[in-house]
Amino acid sequence: MIEMEPFFSQMNFDENAMEGYEFHDIRRLEDLIGYYNEADTVITLEKGNPVIYEVYKRDVPKESGELLHCVTMINPGRVGSEYYMTKGHYHQDETCAEIYYGQKGHGRLVMQKGIKSRMVEMFPGTIAYIPAGWGHRTVNVSDSEPFVFFSIWPGHSGYDYERVAEEPFAKVEAE
Ligand code: S6P
Ligand code: ZN
Q1: Which of 2, 38, 96, 160 is the most buried (most CB within 10 A)?
Q2: Distance from the alpha carbon of residue 89 to the mean position of ligand 2, in angstroms
């Protein structure tokens, strides 16, 4: 077990970023090939390769007892009729739950477990509980504002992105 020292991060609401991060992932449309309708993806990519979302993460040991946490910012925008969204994943360790805390904008948290699916509208102040075993994806349903949320989950959760293809999420299309 690695002995940790206490630390903190500072949310910068003007930049929609968590200051003090060790990792910054930028997901562009090219990283999400296969997630949207193919023809819409091609048409959008002809105009450029937009940043769909960014994740600011702290470096915490990937061990039971530790708590990973990060801030995700999803830009406003659509690919065809579908809003910008995260890839979505299941936790490799199916005993690991997660909490999302809405900070800015309007999003939807889509959850899936077998044939069951659930949706939570996320606003600033919304605290959503993702039970163990549920796949989860977030969608920005605003055409003008970024959607920003904070998440906390167990260090040993792991990610399973492949299972999203086997057990896809319900679609959230623009109205
Ligand atoms: C991690 C948690 C979030 C997502 C992030 C990006 O368990 O659910 O921090 O990693 O929102 O989504 P994704 O699906 O690309 O990992
Ligand atoms: Zn997760």
Answers
A1: 96
A2: 6
